[in-house]
Amino acid sequence: MAKYFICFALYTFYWIGTSTLGNALREYGMNTFKLFPYTVCFVTVQFLVGGMLLVVPSFMELNTQPGKWKFDYKKFAGAGIPAWYLGFHSLFYFIAPSITIPSFFHISISLQEPMLLFLGFIFLSSFYKESE
Q1: Whole-structure pTM value
Q2: Model confidence over 97-106: pLDDT tens digits?
């Protein structure tokens, strides 16, 4: 139980710290009109790591079990790849603005943050141990 409380406290401090840093980067971006790479990449990494932190308690418990580490490709391909596209969609504009993406592939920017959380969660939860 103490492990979950410590993880919750660390998760809370992580979001407070990264939100403060994110606000400072957004203000810098508004003052200089340069959102890329600092603000855009920071938001991407912030939510990706946040999703991974959600899995840490069960990952620590799984680490104590005997067996070989495996990666569930089906789980990641079915849920992780669509989440990867939806999460990183906004970066395509900044990295390669000359590439035109068909209009039916455009998504709302409001989907980026939940999809990055989901991607971090799916990525780390795709690892498992197979008993020998």
Answers
A1: 0.79
A2: 776 666 666 6
